[in-house]
Specification:
This protein is mainly alpha-helical. The chain contains five helices and two strands; from the N terminus they run αααββαα. Helix 2 packs antiparallel against helix 3. It starts with 9 loop residues before the first helix and ends with a helix. One of its GO terms (biological process) is signal transduction. It is found in: Cell membrane. It is a multi-pass membrane protein.
């Protein structure tokens, strides 16, 4: 351990070492390990961010679900009422101020329609982005393989242990016993008599 001084604190030395790894040709494996750990940390951060985004979306849905329901229901009610009212105005042949009422009704219908569209579009865009990200993670799964024969993961360990035990049992059942076992067995049985 190097002592820490006021002129050269430990954290500055570590940062200098990190910068020197990139330039020093004597430490490529150490730098490669550092880069691999850096990528692993980035992947963990991305996974954590994705999980937090889903949690935030669920919390927002629970917090504002009732308000959104009421807002959409009232907008639907307003649009239906305004369209019916506009129909009644047009059918009564009251043409004296029907253009003003038409524009007024149409502006309110447009406002409530845009409100419903905006809420639905924002939610659909968020769902699509998160779903596309999940599909990208699922479809582009990272696999390490041994020339395409085996996946390098924990199942390889289980398969190897199972194969070793299976072949060992087969060899013990089929194979001849070594002569050393016969000599010790005969020697031990005759010495006891």
């Amino acid at each position: 351990m190097l002592p820490t001084t006021i002129d050269s604190p430990q954290h500055k030395r570590v940062l200098r070492m990190k910068d020197n790894w990139e330039n020093d040709s004597a430490l490529p494996t150490l730098y490669g390990t550092y880069k691999a750990n850096e990528y692993h940390v980035k992947l963990k951060k991305v996974k954590q961010i994705h999980l937090e985004l889903l949690k935030c979306a669920n919390i927002l849905n629970e917090a504002y679900g009732l308000q959104i329901l009421i807002s959409i229901f009232t907008s639907l009610l307003f649009i239906t009422t305004l369209l019916y009212n506009l129909y009644v105005i047009l059918m009564t042949n009251n043409y004296s101020n029907w253009i003003i009422q038409f524009y007024m009704h149409f502006s309110w219908i447009f406002y409530h329609g845009i409100k419903i569209f905006a809420m639905a579009n924002i939610c659909q865009t968020t769902i699509t982005e998160i779903r596309d990200f999940m599909y990208q993670l699922i479809q582009n799964r990272l696999k390490f393989t041994v020339c395409g024969f085996y996946d390098l993961d924990h199942t390889l360990i289980y398969n190897m242990i199972g194969s070793i035990i299976t072949y060992l049992v087969i060899f013990l059942q089929i194979g001849d016993r070594p002569k050393a076992f016969f000599n010790n067995a005969i020697h031990n049985s005759t010495s006891m008599m």
